[in-house]
Amino acid sequence: MSKVVFHHTDIKVIKLLLKEIGKDRYDCALQDAGLSNSKPITMHGFFIEWDEGNIDLHYTYPSGISFKLTTVLGMQRVPFEGWELVRKL
Q1: Which end of the chain, N or C, is more open, meaning fewer C-beta atoms within 10 Å of its C-beta?
Q2: Where are the extended beta strands (E) located within 3-76?
Q3: What ranges do the domains of the chain cover?
Q4: Using CA atoms, how far apart are residues 12 and 8, in angstroms rounded to an integer?
């Protein structure tokens, strides 16, 4: 059964959010997700997801595998506009 979530994929917004997160927190999030050896090399694939009140930063690799990197709820750079409705399997 699928459920409805919201995604935000604007690269400019995600770059500002990554700057707010900072290098140390970003590196820790990659390590916690087990991705420290295969860091994302491009901005394409990053997205912000809203799901039942949680706002998280995700990355989808070209192979199609998606990982939650960190929670961004409460940060200043979380956008108000530009969200897309997506069905999640």
Answers
A1: N
A2: 3-8, 46-51, 54-60, 66-71
A3: 3-88
A4: 11
